[in-house]
Amino acid sequence: MATKGRELEDSKKRKRPAGKESGSKKLDLKKPKFTKNATEKISKKPFKPQNKVDGSFKKSHGKSGGFVKEEKVVPKTKQEQRVQAKELIEARKKKRKRNYTLEQELTHLWEKMRQRNISKEDRSKFVSEAIRKMKGKVNDIATSPVTSRVLQTCIKYGSQAERGSVFAELRPHFLILSRNKYAVHMVNKMLDNASKEQLVEFNSFLHGHVASLLRHVVGSMVVERAYSLGNAAQKQALVMELYSVELKLFKDLVSMKESRLEDVIAKLGLRKGSVLEHMKSVIQAVLGKNIVDHSIIHRALLEYLSIADKASAADVIQQLSGPSLVRMIHTKDGARIGMLCVKHGSAKERKNIIKGLTEVSKIAHDQYGSLVLVCILSTVDDTKLVSKNVVRELKKILKELVFDKNGRRPLLQLLHPNCSRYLSVDDLAAMELTIPSLFNKQAEASEVEETGEDENMDEEDADADESSITKKSKKLVSGGKKDPFLRRKELLVDSGLAESLIDTCVENAEELLRSNLGKEIIYEVAIGGTDGILHPALDEKLEILHEAITSLVAKAKPEAEEGTKEEHILEQFHSSRTIRKLVLDSPSFASTLWNKALKGKSEIWAKGHSGKVFAAFLESSNAAVNKLARKELQPLIDSGVLVLTENKHPAAATKAS
User: Fold this and answer.
1) pLDDT for 139-174, tens place per residue?
2) Residues contacting 367, CB < 8 A, separation 6+
3) What is the rounded CA–CA span in Å between residue 494 and residue 479?
4) 70 and 58 Cβ atoms separated by less than 8 Å
5) Domain boundaries, the chain
6) Contacts of 445 (CB under 8 A, 6+ apart)
7) Alpha carbon distance 138, 14 (integer Å)
């Protein structure tokens, strides 16, 4: 059985044809074996060196035979290799770039025309030559990373006719060039130097494409430049395209005098729902790409929040609450958006905003950013967080802030909140802005929380409580739930800011008194702040400040000479009026000043700016202050040497006492 099975397996194997098997030869895959003769043949072959510098001989294949001397192979130096590589690169660039030779010529001209010590005639000659060379090829030149700079310089220094020729050649390509990362700088330079007619024509090219360009990182720069350079009507035309599809399609609808979105909707009869939907699609696309630096976007966002519902407004605040908000508060509308986010944001969102203020010093010196800091100091109840992230940074640069027009605003807000002397009407209006949909929600929540009654209220009770609801609404605008005085005290006194501020005023007392901006800081600090917020915790420090001012006043009056020194502190315009206000508003300062500096010197200082300081002792509403100087000043008043302001007389002061 085993034999039969083996035969069956053998029969199944593939068999080669008989003829081929007999005539074929098997391939030997083993290593070849070298015989003795083969080894001898290899050893007899002459050795040929590969690298020969001094030359060698090789057999000639010509008719004459014999040997011919080989040429020397000398290696190239590194400099020769670099030159050869450079030539190779140049040859490749010429094949790849069709305007390569022109670019080289323009670059050489650019190096000459951009020099600072060149005459206007020579520069205009180079500019004219460059524009002549690039005529007909300006579009290609503008998109090149090298020659686009040449074109910018030509636009900057060229004549109006030369700029017009470039503008005419680029007219069909402006939208494409606005999206190019190299050509966009040339387009912006063209707008900066454009005439009024050219700017109007360029804005007409942008019509219908504003929303799509704002979604483009590069293209948004062009829209922003056109928006910033335009007049009020041109700005309005650009931003109105973001309101609805109808305004995007029809140019005639854009030319309107109404600037507020609510007025536009009312006049054109637009559906509020469709406007919200269109604006939401535009704004979400822009915010999704984090393009939040441009003022036109800030304007559109502010108008959107004025009509947005609760969910949409809260969503925008959530997206902006963070480091991205810092990039917005450098504009007027951007700062207002920042204040709205602080007012209506949740505790978590406020925390993200405050932690995102990485450069508090830079923000404090900014015209609009300083208002956001003012809003934070007046609104946020988490004073520990504000002290750690904002107040601590302000303490480091106090000397800079007290002399800066914008930097002093946060300090003055803590010392004297919402004062019309330090904040303009526009600033105060910005501080009172709210988002209608969210403000109504907060007002209702506060009303329910404080009264505990919302549904079971009679009509008479509702009328009686109308005034109280108005007061609650104003409280929501100005701050959170914490008492404003307690919040100010925690930020100003408990944080150590007031103590550092007093020390700064003592060190720079004379300079602050003479300064138009610094005088208001030292005045507010010296009187102890509004509502006496610095008393009684810092009374000792304030006495030191009073004595520092008094020591300046006690200096002798300088003699009138040619090439005189600085005016005395009582004769200088700003300092004399500041000291006068301190006498009127701070009895403790008035007592120190009279007893240590002015007593017995009234005849010397009775005239000029200094006379107003003496008159303030009799004009003060405090009887003790009147009594200090009445005996010495009365003869001067009777003789007409000292004149009281505001038609006040010592007799009136005596009756008041």
Assistant:
1) 988 998 888 999 999 999 999 999 999 999 999 999
2) 406
3) 19
4) yes
5) 308-449+477-495, 506-558+565-656
6) none
7) 78
Residues 419-472: tens digit of each pLDDT: 999 999 999 999 999 999 988 655 545 444 444 444 344 444 444 443 443 344
Locus of tokens 């140049």:
90
CA distance 70 to 57: 6
Between the alpha carbon of residue 267 and those of residues 74, 172, 506, the distances in Å are 88, 35, 59
Residue 229 burial (CB < 10 Å; 0-12/13-18/19+)?
middle
Q: How far apart are CA 348 and CA 371, in angstroms?
A: 21
HSE of 466, CA atoms in CB hemisphere, 13 A: 6
**Dist CA 146 CA 418 (whole Å):** 53
The two tokens of residue 459 are 């009509």
- CA 336/CA 348 separation, integer angstroms: 20
> Closest by alpha carbon to 539, among 548, 528, 523, 529?
528
Number of Cβ atoms within 10 Å of the Cβ of 484: 16
Cα 593 to its chain centre, rounded Å, is 46
Full-model pTM: 0.79
In this structure, the chain runs to a length of 657
Contact in structure between 225 and 191 (CB atoms under 8 Å): yes
DSSP annotation of 492 reads I
As given in the structure block, the two tokens for residue 43 are 């050893």
Q: Where are the alpha helices (DSSP H) in 380-432?
A: 383-386, 392-396, 398-401, 409-415, 425-431
Output the six-digit token pair for 280.
């939401």
User: Can you name the residues that pair with 68 across neighbouring β-strands?
Assistant: 58
Report which residue type is found at 384. K
Q: Is 639 helix (H, G, I), strand (E, B) or coil?
A: coil
Quick check: 579 and 613 in contact, CB under 8 A? yes
> For tokens 């204040």, what's the residue?
339
CA-wise closest residue to 239 among 283, 187, 299 = 299
More confident of the two residues 457 and 392 = 392
From the centroid of its chain, how far is CA 174? 28
